[in-house]
């Protein structure tokens, strides 16, 4: 079943929050290697995520974020194949 407009809007809000936590995605960041800061960021994101998915766990959130990152990379490779290969 396709997600509703409200669910899409909610996922975009989660992505915006996720982008605000470079310790979760920016490998070259100093904070990326800090476990405590990462866990705190995941806990904050999980509170937001539970607004829509009430039974979600931290593992569910991590799987969802990983799936979105993977999909984004795949689409980026289709749109800009040379640019994406040059960054690897």
From TrEMBL:
InterPro entries: MADF-dom. Residues 13-88 form the MADF domain. It comes from the Eukaryota. Coiled coil: none annotated. PROSITE patterns: MADF. It holds the Pfam family MADF_DNA_bdg. PANTHER family: DPT-YFP REPRESSOR BY OVEREXPRESSION, ISOFORM D-RELATED (PTHR21505:SF8), MADF DOMAIN-CONTAINING PROTEIN-RELATED (PTHR21505). This is MADF domain-containing protein.
């Amino acid at each position: 079943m396709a997600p509703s407009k409200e669910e899409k809007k909610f996922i975009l809000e989660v992505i915006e929050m996720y982008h605000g936590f470079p310790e979760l995605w920016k490998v070259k960041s100093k904070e990326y290697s800090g476990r405590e800061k990462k866990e705190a960021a995941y806990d904050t994101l999980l509170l937001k995520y539970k607004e829509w998915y009430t039974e979600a766990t931290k593992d569910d959130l991590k799987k969802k974020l990983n799936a979105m990152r993977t999909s984004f990379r795949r689409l980026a490779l289709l749109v800009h194949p040379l640019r994406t290969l040059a960054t690897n």
